[in-house]
Fold these 4 entries.
Entry 1:
Amino acid sequence: MGIGPIAAIPKALAQAGLTRDDIDVYEINEAFASQFAYCVEQLQISIDKINPNGSSIALTHPLGMTGVRQVVTGLTELRRRNADILCTSMCIGSGMGAAGIFVNEARSH
């Protein structure tokens, strides 16, 4: 349960033509601390880029709305950092996962 991001994030990055290093901020669902630690280890993503404002354990894990909370939190962080790209991912249950890539179009270049 909860390891879907391990498959979902690489697929989303590949479809967008990006690498894990191209992403400025990751919002990865932390349903359980052990699940999150395992996903981060397997994905080999710098912890400095993940959930910079806290995880679902700290911020909330609203049933059916986790993705919305992650996207809003992540896009807000992109604007705060004047950064470009967010990757968000969540587990769905039964080992499934979903991931999305979002671009901060408001960033001044």
Entry 2:
Amino acid sequence: MQFLYASEFHAPVEALFSFHERPDAFELLTPHWSGVALVRRTGGLETGAEVEIEIPLGPFRRRWLAVHTEYEKNRLFTDEQREGPFARWIHSHEFTPLGTNRSRLTDRVDLALPGGPLVNLAAALPVRLQLRRLFRYRHEVTRRHLEASAAAAAGSPGAGRRLGVAGSGSGATD
């Protein structure tokens, strides 16, 4: 199953990529409603870096280990599940410059659920809806942090305020 979510930002591609390199980026981009807990992280975004999380699956928690397999500064990074709930999970984060102060972030996920083609067919819609909700949240957090950084750099009165994002996850389109 393939999933794609893209957004344009009023920020240079370097600022967009730099936000994702922040040591606290994973925590910032993890919705409070997801129940995801960071267990450990080694490295940043570079090839070979690892992130271990725990995710809720019903009343249980499941370990998920992702390894970064590609890294090109200001262009892309890719993480792949090595252990976790999916039969396959490859997530590419692609950064495209669109001009001096504009860029695009494209999240591209190639995934398969355990259980074969019928399970994947039956679960396609709910999985897509959940991923759309997650990536809409993540892109909105990214947008707000980039706007706050730009305001701080410009000396705007709203600079330095804490940001929060809330939402139901309804209403997005691919």
Entry 3:
Amino acid sequence: LILLVERKYPLSRYTLDQMLNAVKLRVEEQSEMYLEMLSFGVDAVKELEEKHQVFTAAGEELSATMQKLMLLD
């Protein structure tokens, strides 16, 4: 790869390495950002699941209470 680039662009090996390192750093930063976003999404899903369980339990409790009240009438 570097040999092909050196023929077209007369850059020093150091300059090419620096350019490549800069690109690698950007890719690493973006990958890290995407992982953080995925982690945030997973956390949000877990929180929604927990709230759903609470609402489901509350709904079941309410239904049971309503059935008991109907039996008392």
Entry 4:
Amino acid sequence: MGKSILIVEDDALFRSFLATILAEEGHRLEEARDGKEGLDKFRAGDFDLVIADLKMPRLSGMELMQAARKERPESRWIILTAHGSI
């Protein structure tokens, strides 16, 4: 059985791409458009992994991870970025 994964990405095309690939591998997915929505979904769910973009409106990926890990420090994260200067 697949893992439960939350994808938090403001780029709709890339978010859909990730979701398609992960769903084909049998994972259960939730998607969020920005960090604030991601935090709300994180609090409401039980995820094995969170994949988040670094730069997003309303709450960055790092801010999201910091807030979420205060509540669940054992949570696992992958932070992505398309910005080459970071």
